[in-house]
Specification:
single chain; 5 helices; about 25% helix
């Protein structure tokens, strides 16, 4: 015996596929971050709510082939005292560094942009919301990984994969595991 089909909320943004892509891409663009070649939106519900982004909009972008939201994915970053990584947008950058020779792993839940999403993003003008970088910083601090040092810097420019940034630190965090 079949039960009644579940009812889903009506799509948040209406219009043709082209109009939906245009509206939603402009809405999410300020919140897109990068780590290496990965372009993503943080999938943390509190952060999404804070910036007035909802999962229905993410799903619509997924349906248009611009975001991967189907499975819970986490950006996995491995750090040691010889490896560092950066999470950034056009305004600010988090520099993450390991404090020991053993590997420290940092994970950030994300919705990754597809190649098409990255291409469309590169074609539109938008002003990044630099508070999203602070939100991700706070999210990582909450997880309190040991042997981690982080600092937020102002980004001056990005050319290809080279980031020119101000050496003055805007915020920092350091958590060293106790010595045995």
């Amino acid at each position: 015996e079949f039960k009644e089909k579940p009812k889903y909320e009506k799509a948040v943004v209406e219009g043709t596929s082209e109009e939906i892509v245009q509206k939603l891409t402009k809405k999410i663009a300020p919140f897109v971050l990068r780590e290496g070649n990965n372009h993503f939106i943080v999938s943390n519900n509190d952060i999404l709510k804070k910036h007035d982004l909802n999962y229905h909009e993410i799903l619509q972008l997924d349906e248009c082939g611009l975001i991967n939201s189907g499975i819970s994915v986490s950006l996995q970053i491995s750090l040691s005292n010889t490896e560092e990584s950066q999470i950034f947008n056009k305004c600010k950058m988090i520099v993450l560094e390991g404090l020991s020779s053993s590997v420290t792993k940092v994970s950030v839940g994300d919705y990754g942009l597809t190649r098409a999403g990255i291409e469309i993003l590169s074609l539109i003008d938008f002003i990044p919301d630099d508070s999203i970088v602070d939100d991700v910083f706070d999210l990582i601090v909450k997880k309190s990984p040991s042997n981690l040092k982080m600092a937020i810097h102002k980004v001056n420019s990005i050319q290809e994969n080279s980031i020119n940034y101000d050496l003055n630190i805007l915020r920092e965090f350091q958590e060293q595991s106790p010595k045995k």
